[in-house]
Design a protein that fits this description.
alpha+beta; 105 residues; 6-stranded antiparallel beta sheet; globular
Length: 105
């Protein structure tokens, strides 16, 4: 567990694109991701929630989710260099983080 901070949307467009590009690269390399599904009305989960309750999914599955609707994807920062992607799809929200500790920042 690297941070107890809640996710904050990355508002710097260049940084947000870089985070998405990093996630795309990790997925292409075959990395797995932790993916937590939650209701749209919920607040963003903290990193610990995603780590502990998120399902481990193949990179291509995670990539398909965040590429489904590019307008509904936001890069988030958990603090301490940990980042993730927030996605909305089909009345649900998802938070994705790289599963490997070395891939998280």
């Amino acid at each position: 567990m690297g941070s107890n901070n809640f996710a904050v949307v990355v508002t710097d467009a260049i940084k947000a694109r870089q985070i998405l590009a990093d996630f795309e690269r990790l997925a292409a390399q075959g990395s797995t991701f932790k993916l937590l599904e939650f209701g749209r009305e919920s607040n963003f989960p903290c990193l610990q929630d995603v780590e502990e309750a998120g399902a481990t999914v193949d990179g291509l599955i995670a990539q398909a989710l965040w590429n489904r609707d590019g307008d509904a994807v936001e890069a988030v920062n958990f603090g301490n260099g940990f980042v993730g992607l927030f996605c909305e799809s089909d009345e649900l929200s998802y938070m994705a983080i790289p599963n490997g500790k070395n891939d998280r920042g």
